[in-house]
Amino acid sequence: MPLTDSLRDDILASVPSLRAFAISLSGNGDRADDLVQETLLRALANIDSFQPGSNLPAWLFTILRNLFRSDYRKRRREVEDADGNYAKTLKTQPAQSAHLEFEEFRVALDKLPQDQREALILVGASGFSYEDAAAICGCAVGTIKSRVNRARSKLSALLYVDGADDFGPDDTVRAVIGGSGG
Amino acid sequence: MKDVKSQASKVAVAGKPGRLNSEIQSRIGHQLRAMYDDVVRQGVPDRFAELIKKLDAPGATGDTAKNDGRD
User: Fold this and answer.
1) ipTM over 0.90
2) Exposure string (b/e) for A1-14, b if CB count within 10 Å is 16 or more?
3) Which domains, and CATH codes, for chain A?
4) Residue to substitute from A10, A41, A92, A176, interface B, most B β-carbons within 10 A
5) Minimum-distance CB partner of A156 among B20, B40, B68
6) What ranges do the domains of chain B cover?
7) How close is the nearest chain B Cα to the Cα of A137, in Å?
8) What is the pLDDT of residues A35-58, one digit of tens each?
């Protein structure tokens, strides 16, 4: 459909959640904003292919996710220093004490396989239905459900001592990281 | 950090191996949304508002956006 004023307003209204999704995926604020910009340009260039009345956020999220995927493959070799980059990203966040728990959470989130991380974010944070999340990721609804479940199990194992009395939290986290591999 | 661990230990005592403790799950859900909403609350940065405004000018959408990725 043509770019009407109301469609443009709707796209703009999706920017905050697109940024949140991009930051959750990339773990890097600058990279995330570049991704959002590419997403907006791509969306506007292809606005004719957007079906009026269909789910605009889901359409935009699909574009962003695909851009992230193709870009991620390209950059994979360059970003050997993922941990170092991640540490820098964390320092750009406001260092409020309430955010310490966030930081630990973000580090754990970053350790999830990409498929599981994006499924969990789409369903658990962006508020998409399993069906929408499946459409965004181009997979079956059951696949999304299983990815979300695995993501939750893995996060709880990374963040909390899940009945492993013999280990301190740090040892457990290390054991889980070492043993899971992705 | 200390808080997280002491809370985690408390949760662990109540938890059972191999089963997802519902308290842990609600904590994960809460943290996930808190992290996400933290960014959402930042609203629309100027660069994106300006980008969309610029592309709104008659004829601009085709010229600017369709070149994206080729230059």
Assistant:
1) no
2) eebeeebbeebbeb
3) 1-90 (1.10.1740.10), 93-182 (1.10.10.10)
4) A41
5) B20
6) 21-59
7) 19
8) 999 999 999 999 999 998 899 999
